[in-house]
């Protein structure tokens, strides 16, 4: 099993993780606060706001990198006093750094959304889904009866096989499959990571990457890339070649990862939530087929640190914020 003595509670809180998502207009920042009551860190991307106000100051906003994060308590002797002191200190920090607003996607398994709910006015957004790997019979307990039957049928094909690989040397095979999947799904630009991103994943986290592959004969038809860290496996990215969808290799990837995770002693696979908060969302219902008993609460926070400047930026952009987009001044019109 992966090292459980990591400094951070999960990979999403590692500074190297945030650096995967740096751009010309954003940089990764880890904010550390400690006092007599304990220690808190907050990892985020600090982004330049492309609106210049009359005062000529460059303003910024901050956002959780792709996935989950938010402030997290490392230890506390008095949690309430620690959070209060942290907020006071962070307010001064945002003023010094000309930070206007913060968008936070809290970590569903760690549960820091509930911890910081009052401080950040965090709101419940949706359920996320996982597979609990601590059951003796993971497949029988967490997978739906229908999916178990389908997996047995698919695996009867003698030409179909799967494999799990720890610490792969390359993700070149995955890039082709992933891009073709994004094309088929009509995904937004946000999901088209450049090829260099995948190489950086391997370089920054050489001991925390696992891949799953499904083959039909000698042809690689589907592949998944997973983070492993501490007690958790995260389904990061996956894809299937369009001409092989009839073989449902996505089911086999989940089956293979569940067997691997259980054998290695991990606690959960985390799949994330649906593409919307709707409990009838198709993606959410699909994920539930592989995690019948395991869900987590996902919280979001939209925190304005400088109300006056925030409103000036909205006025300069000509938006009111009524659409719910946050920060409103970044809404595409």
Topology:
Blueprint: H1 15-19, E1 26-35, E2 38-48, E3 60-63, E4 72-76, H2 79-96, E5 99-105, H3 112-115, H4 117-120, E6 123-132, H5 138-142, H6 145-155, E7 160-166, H7 172-185, H8 195-204, E8 209-216, E9 219-229, E10 232-240, H9 249-264, E11 268-273, H10 282-288, E12 295-304, H11 307-317
Parallel strand pairs: 3-5, 10-11
Antiparallel strand pairs: 1-2, 2-3, 2-4, 5-12, 6-11, 6-12, 7-8, 8-9, 9-10
Helix pairs in contact: 6-9
Structure write-up:
With 333 residues, this protein is of the alpha+beta class. It has two domains: 11-127 and 298-330, no CATH class; 134-266, Gcn5-related N-acetyltransferase (GNAT) (Aminopeptidase). The protein contains eleven helices and twelve strands. Strands 1, 2, 3, 4, 5, 6, 7, 8, 9, 10, 11 and 12 form a twelve-stranded mixed beta sheet that branches. Strand 10 (232-240), helix 9 and strand 11 (268-273) form a beta-alpha-beta unit. The mean pLDDT is 95.
């Amino acid at each position: 099993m992966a090292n459980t003595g990591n400094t951070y509670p999960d990979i999403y809180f590692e500074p190297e993780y945030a650096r995967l998502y740096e751009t010309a207009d954003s940089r990764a920042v880890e904010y550390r606060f400690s006092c007599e009551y304990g220690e808190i860190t907050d990892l985020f991307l600090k982004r330049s706001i492309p609106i210049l106000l009359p005062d000529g100051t460059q303003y910024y906003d901050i956002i959780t990198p792709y996935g989950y994060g938010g402030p997290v308590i490392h230890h506390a002797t008095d949690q309430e006093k620690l959070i209060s002191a942290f907020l006071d200190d962070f307010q001064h920090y945002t003023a010094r750094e000309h930070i206007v607003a913060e968008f936070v996607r809290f970590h569903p398994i760690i549960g820091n959304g509930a911890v910081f709910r009052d401080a950040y006015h965090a709101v419940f957004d949706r359920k996320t889904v996982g597979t609990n790997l601590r059951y003796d019979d993971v497949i029988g307990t967490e997978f739906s009866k229908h999916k178990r039957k389908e997996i047995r049928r698919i695996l009867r094909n003698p030409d179909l096989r799967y494999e799990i690989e720890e610490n792969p040397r390359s993700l070149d095979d995955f890039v082709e499959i992933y891009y073709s999947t994004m094309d088929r799904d009509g995904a937004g630009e946000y999901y088209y990571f450049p090829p260099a991103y995948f190489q950086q994943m391997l370089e920054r986290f050489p001991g925390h990457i696992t891949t799953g592959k499904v083959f039909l004969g000698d042809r690689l038809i589907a592949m998944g890339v997973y983070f492993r860290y501490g007690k958790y496996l995260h389904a990061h990215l996956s894809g299937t070649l369009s001409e092989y969808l009839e073989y449902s290799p996505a089911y086999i990837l989940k089956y293979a990862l569940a067997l691997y995770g259980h054998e290695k002693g991990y606690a959960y696979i985390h799949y994330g939530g649906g593409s919307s908060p709707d409990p009838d969302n198709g993606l959410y219902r699909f994920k539930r087929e592989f995690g019948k008993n395991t869900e987590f609460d996902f919280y979001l926070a939209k925190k304005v640190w400088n109300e006056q400047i925030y409103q000036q930026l909205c006025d300069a952009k000509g938006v009111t914020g009524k659409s719910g987009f946050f920060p409103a001044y970044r809404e595409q019109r």
